Amino acid sequence: MRFSDIKDLIPGKKRRKQKEDKRKLTALVESHKFDLFIMFIILADAAVLGFMTSNYIDVFMDNVLFMLDRLFMGIFIAEMLMKLYVYRKGFFKKGWNVFDFVIVAVSSVPFASAFIVLRTFRIFRLLKYLGRFPTLNGMVEIFIKLLPNFVALLAIMAVIFYSFAVIGVSLYGDVFKDFDCLGSALFVLVQAFTLDGWASSIARPVMSVYPDAWLYFSTFIMLSLLVVTSFLMSAISKTVSVFKR
């Protein structure tokens, strides 16, 4: 007997009840209160995961926190099952639903209990709800608009760092250990870029042997600041354009 024939045997009243139950479940999972509840559970789970990393938790509290973590995981799984039932294949047509599903699936695997880093992925589900708040939604919109600029910044900085690292190894690698290989030179340039004692601990020792080294470090710092300033100016411009609308 085909499925359609079996379906026809179900009384009409029962089918109507099933449709009504599905309609109510759909209204539930799409309601603002349900989203707020899930947000609360995510925040509570984040707090539990934070307490579980503490060294001051005794055995009893550790068991309580573990049980709470399992409870929250059960709520997340129930949420996914309800949405899968309501939306069927349409569930995977929305990127945020796929994002939620992957995070819940990864954090619920058996060995996730031993690796807290996998369970902390659930906290990232809060990103989905940022759009519910106008101010946060504006920040997300700015972040998305700035992504191409940020990628361009990374590309330009990668070229600058690589070029100056190669130059540094060629000029100073024979004398200074900080420039004896490409990796060490890149690390030194990162320190110089953050302005973390670069003059006293990096530039001046090199300049004591190579007096002209000031030109190398000054050029690198000036180029880096110029690129970063350009990115900040473009970020401010796009931020103003978003908030003017």
Structural notes for this entry:
The chain is mainly α. The protein folds into 2 domains: 31-131, Voltage-gated potassium channels. Chain C (Four Helix Bundle (Hemerythrin (Met), subunit A)); 135-244, Helix Hairpins. Helix content is 76%, strand content 0%. The chain contains 10 helices and no strands. The chain has helices at 3-9, 12-29, 32-52, 59-87, 95-107, 116-119, 134-172, 182-193, 198-209, 213-244. Helix 3 (32-52) packs antiparallel against helix 4 and helix 4 runs antiparallel to helix 5. The mean pLDDT is 81.
Query: What is the second-level CATH architecture of the largest domain?
Result: Orthogonal Bundle
Structural class: mainly alpha
What is the C-level CATH assignment of the largest domain?
Mainly Alpha
**Domain module count:** 2
Q: Whole-number radius of gyration?
A: 28 Å
Oligomeric state, counting identical vs distinct chains: single chain
Mean pLDDT: 81
Overall strand count: 0
